[in-house]
Amino acid sequence: MTSRRAGTQSGRAYVLRRPKTATLNMAEHLQQLFANARGALRPILPKRLRGLPVVPVVRLAGIIGFSTPLKPGLTLTTVARALERAFTMRTAKAVALLINSPGGSPVQSHLVYRRIRQLAAESARPVIAFAEDVAASGGYMIACAADEIFCDPSSIVGSIGVVGGSFGFPKLMDKLGVERRLYTSGEHKAMLDPFLPENPQDVDRLKALQRDIHEEFIELVKRSRGARLKGPEKTLFSGEYWTGGKAIELGLADGIGDLRATLRARFGDDVITPLVAPARGWFGRVQPSVAPSDITGLPRAADFAEEIISALEARALWARYGL
Question: Which fold has domain 52-159+240-319?
Answer without folding.
Answer: 2-enoyl-CoA Hydratase; Chain A, domain 1 (3.90.226)
